[in-house]
Write a structure and sequence with these properties.
241 residues; alpha/beta; Rossmann fold; 19% strand
């Protein structure tokens, strides 16, 4: 696993964060050192998919990156006739995802799609996962995407959304941010790396409050949206149709 040192040295100008080849090469290290509880979230998504996947249905990994969620679902879903559709808009990420998934043996087939998840067709989706993906979608497109997912789901289907959270209380928000920075320091990131990464991502990753997520999901029609995991300002949400 290559070490993430993208922001190790001072950049004259910090460009907006993109999921390019450079990021794809270090992504496993980056995500583990940046997102508290990431491994637990991945493992649990597989277990939840195993519970809620319906026979002869599609399972979507939207924003699949290097395929961690896809692999976890493949290890846990035993229902017959299921198919995973792994979608990402980064060719560099999808190329590595395909290599990673094809290196494992499984009876569960996977289709790989290079596409904007806001524009793809979603069909017969008993499980849909957006694992730290929705936060990168433009705010004005989020409602329509989630509505499309809802209408493509059979009754009893599950939607899982992992996100970085914003907090309406500014003092709490700053506390959570500083605690997250301390988590990153403990994982070997310098203050320079933390500052430059924050600058790169601040206009790309737009976090929302839990109340915003809950209200939107309820308005669409999902039952009992709730946070099933949270560590600092990162959480994972599930909702049932």
């Amino acid at each position: 696993m290559s070490k993430d040192n993208i922001y190790q040295h001072a950049h004259t100008q910090v460009a907006d964060f993109t999921f390019d080849k450079k990021v794809a090469n270090v992504f496993p290290d980056m995500i583990q050192r940046s997102v508290p509880g990431y491994s637990h979230v991945i493992a649990m998504i597989g277990l939840l998919a195993g519970k809620y996947a319906q026979p002869n249905s599609n399972l979507y990994d939207l924003g699949c990156s290097l395929g961690a969620v896809t692999a976890s679902m493949r290890h846990n879903v035993k229902q017959t006739g299921c198919n995973i559709i792994a979608v990402d808009n980064s060719q560099a990420m999808l190329d590595k995802c395909e290599v990673n998934i094809n290196s494992e043996e499984s009876m569960l087939p996977v289709q790989f799609k290079l596409a904007d998840i806001s524009e793809i067709e979603i069909i017969n989706a008993s499980v849909v996962v957006l694992n730290f993906t929705l936060q990168f979608i433009k705010l004005e497109k989020r409602q329509a995407l989630l509505e499309k997912i809802y209408h493509a789901m059979p009754k009893g289907g599950v939607l899982i959304i992992s996100e970085k959270l914003d907090f309406a209380d500014s003092s709490l928000n700053e506390l959570m941010i500083e605690n997250h920075h301390q988590f990153k320091r403990a994982n070997g990131y310098s203050d320079l790396e933390i500052a430059q990464k924050r600058s790169a991502i601040e206009n790309v990753l737009i976090a929302e409050t839990w109340q915003t997520h809950e209200s939107r999901l309820q308005t669409i029609g999902f039952a009992h949206p709730h946070i099933w995991f949270q560590s600092l300002n990162f959480c994972s949400i599930m909702a049932i149709k």
